[in-house]
Amino acid sequence: MKIATFNINGIKARLPRLVEWLEETQPDIACLQELKSSDETMPTKEIEAAGYGFLYHGQKGFNGVAILAKGTQPVEVQRGLAGEAEDEQSRYLEADVHGLRVASIYLPNGNPQPGPKFDYKLRWMARLRERARALLAAEIPTILTGDYNVIPHDDDVWDPRAMATDALMQPESRDAWFRLLGDGWTDAIRSRHPAGGVWTFWDYQAGGWQRDHGFRIDHLLLSPALADRLVDAGVDKDHRGREKASDHAPTWAVLS
User: Which residues bind Mg(2+) (predicted)?
Assistant: First the structure.
């Protein structure tokens, strides 16, 4: 079974690239982030025509997450995270699909830091950890996928010095990440590529793609039962180089 995560950076603007990727790679489950579309304007017909059930949590112009399932409709479990009733940003969607619990996550960027956006990022990560711990306690086979906006290690970025002041690499961001992993989650990409050097994002600015100045912020975290089933994990890097592509590349894991 292949599960993928893809920050699409505008589902309507990238729809041809999304459908192309679905047809070429045929993931069983695909989690999308940064849809930038309201629920009312989501391209449901096109996704369903590609053979996928489509569950989404949209927000006009910003954020937005979705779960796609090949040949079936994901069954929604939860949208949004508990802990801040006033938080209306569409960043978390959880569903049951193909016998797994799957979450699509678009974690706050946190820039500029320090400041309120960074404080929100850290609070959001704490709320995510609480939900993740509940899933582990229930022993539900779970995969938490998405754009975490965290660069975990220095070898997950082309030049650590270039990102040293960014919210993605701050000690507080990394500490929250490793606290989450320490509860029992496995970073699928890291487990298959322990030496690092695997990027999932290349900025549109300053020739990031052309110079291979990228970093890894799209992650798939596996609960213990699924970590035991991990066969492979990687990045569909060539899709980043296509015309009018997202600035992220699809990232995936294969489970037995």
Answer: 7, 34, 147, 149, 247-248
Contact 36, 10 (CB under 8 A): yes
Domains of the chain, earliest start first = 2-255 (3.60.10.10)
Per the annotation, binding residues for Mg(2+) are 7, 34, 147, 149, 247-248
Residues with catalytic function? 106, 147, 248
- Each of the 256 residues of the chain gets a pLDDT tens digit; together they read 999 999 999 999 999 999 999 999 999 999 999 999 999 999 999 999 999 999 999 999 999 999 999 999 999 999 999 999 999 999 999 999 999 999 999 999 999 999 999 999 999 999 999 999 999 999 999 999 999 999 999 999 999 999 999 999 999 999 999 999 999 999 999 999 999 999 999 999 989 999 999 999 999 999 999 999 999 999 999 999 999 999 999 999 999 9
Annotated binding site: 7, 34, 147, 149, 247-248
For the entire predicted model, the pTM comes to: 0.97
Alpha helix stretches (DSSP H) within 97-203: 116-137, 171-182, 188-192
Which structure tokens are listed for 25?
Answer: 């790679």
Q: Select from 107, 104, 102, 105 the least CA-distant residue to 135.
A: 102
